[in-house]
């Protein structure tokens, strides 16, 4: 999953081709609907833990995790179909810039999970400037071009590379040496490569001048938050409890996620290894134990980077004329008891 979320950052614009039913515990309480940004994965683990361990019920909530479909979580929130939703950083920033009724309320991932990867035996690639003239297999978003060009130029290169749009087949193409490099989410695709014995090397974005970021958020709408402050606070705090439990109880949390989505997970070992990487890399919780809190400096730095790169477009598809006040795009206020 670099941050950019796990899939929104890398797979912006791809349509889903599958849907399924996620069982919901019978509860009584205030109803809350939550949308996912992709098929269930370890980025979502705190939601399923909070639901199936009864944390939401204890908070007086009846939480329904909506099955993933071809409509983004941001669109479902903006249109009042979902109260909260998981959204990748890139998807959040671009939809908000275009006028979506969104506000980030929880940082699922505390630091960038994405990275630029290539096969480990490529002795000709030692730093990003060596990517000039090579072939990138990607997902067709403007973000990718801006990101990779920045990495290469910040390393002293020209930023000239060939691009082929492959979607998720880019990972197979890399393994087969049909392309030279791609982008992946370390905590899923990277872990999968390790389990399959495919040695890779990688460049971290933050090592070459691209701001570190929260790759994944929980978002809601300002209208919902204003109308339901107590419910929002209860949901955020119970969700935080779910993610904290997953950090401290990896085996049980992984089993909860797998059992809740039996038709999706044919390889429980990948789920366990992915959660292990998320925990040991301080992705779900910072080194000081902080879970869920949005880092204002990190949020605003990524917003400024996207604005400067011309990635943030208005509702008419034109680059924003003025840099937004990004501090208005998120809040940590619902962590307080209420």
Q: Could you explain the architecture of this structure?
A:
With 338 residues, this protein is an alpha/beta fold. It has 2 domains: 6-111 and 214-335, 3-Layer(aba) Sandwich (D-Maltodextrin-Binding Protein, domain 2), CATH 3.40.190; 114-208, D-Maltodextrin-Binding Protein, domain 2. It contains 13 helices and 10 strands. The strands form 3 sheets. A 5-stranded mixed sheet has the order 2-1-3-10-4. Strands 8-5-9 form a 3-stranded antiparallel sheet. The protein has a two-stranded parallel ribbon with strand order 6-7. Residues 1-27 have low confidence and may be disordered. GO terms for molecular function: metal ion binding; transferase activity.
Short key terms for the protein model shown above:
disordered N terminus, D-Maltodextrin-Binding Protein, domain 2, 5-stranded mixed beta sheet, 3-stranded antiparallel beta sheet, 13 helices, alpha/beta, 338 residues, single chain
What is the topological layout?
Blueprint: H1 6-11, E1 30-35, H2 45-52, H3 55-58, E2 61-65, H4 73-78, E3 84-88, H5 89-97, E4 103-107, E5 114-119, E6 135-138, H6 142-154, E7 162-165, H7 170-175, E8 182-185, H8 186-195, E9 200-203, E10 216-220, H9 222-227, H10 229-248, H11 250-260, H12 268-280, H13 296-308
Parallel strand pairs: 1-2, 1-3, 6-7
Antiparallel strand pairs: 3-10, 4-10, 5-8, 5-9
Helix pairs in contact: 2-10, 2-11, 8-12, 10-11, 11-12
């Amino acid at each position: 999953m670099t941050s950019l979320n796990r899939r929104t950052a890398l797979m912006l614009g791809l349509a889903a081709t599958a849907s399924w039913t996620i069982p919901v515990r019978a509860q009584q309480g205030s109803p809350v609907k939550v949308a996912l940004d992709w098929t269930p994965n370890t980025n979502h683990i705190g939601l399923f833990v909070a639901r199936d361990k009864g944390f939401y019920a204890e908070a007086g909530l009846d939480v329904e995790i909506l099955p993933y479909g071809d409509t983004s979580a941001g669109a479902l929130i903006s249109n009042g179909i979902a109260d909260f939703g998981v959204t990748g950083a890139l998807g959040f920033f671009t939809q908000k810039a275009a006028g979506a009724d969104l506000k980030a309320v929880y940082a699922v991932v505390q630091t960038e999970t994405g990275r630029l990867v290539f096969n480990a035996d490529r002795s000709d690639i030692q730093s990003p400037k060596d990517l000039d003239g090579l072939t990138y297999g990607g997902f067709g978003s403007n973000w990718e071009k801006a990101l990779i060009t920045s990495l290469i130029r910040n390393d002293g290169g020209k930023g000239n590379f060939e691009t082929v749009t492959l979607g998720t087949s880019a990972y197979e193409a890399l393994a087969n040496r049909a392309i030279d490099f791609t982008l992946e989410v370390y905590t899923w695709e990277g872990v999968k490569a390790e389990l399959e014995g495919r040695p890779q090397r990688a460049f971290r974005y933050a090592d070459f001048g691209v701001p570190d970021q929260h790759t994944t958020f929980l978002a809601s709408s300002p209208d919902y938050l204003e109308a339901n402050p107590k419910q929002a606070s209860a949901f955020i705090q119970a969700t935080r409890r779910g993610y904290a439990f997953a950090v401290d109880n990896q085996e049980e949390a992984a089993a909860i996620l797998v059992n809740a989505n039996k038709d999706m997970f044919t390889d429980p070992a990948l789920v366990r290894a992915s959660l292990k990487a998320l925990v040991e890399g301080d992705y779900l919780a910072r080194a000081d134990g902080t879970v869920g809190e949005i880092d204002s400096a990190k949020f605003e730095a990524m917003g400024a980077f996207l604005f400067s790169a011309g990635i943030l477009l208005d509702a008419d598809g034109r680059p924003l004329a003025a840099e937004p006040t990004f501090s208005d795009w998120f809040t940590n206020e619902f962590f307080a008891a209420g």
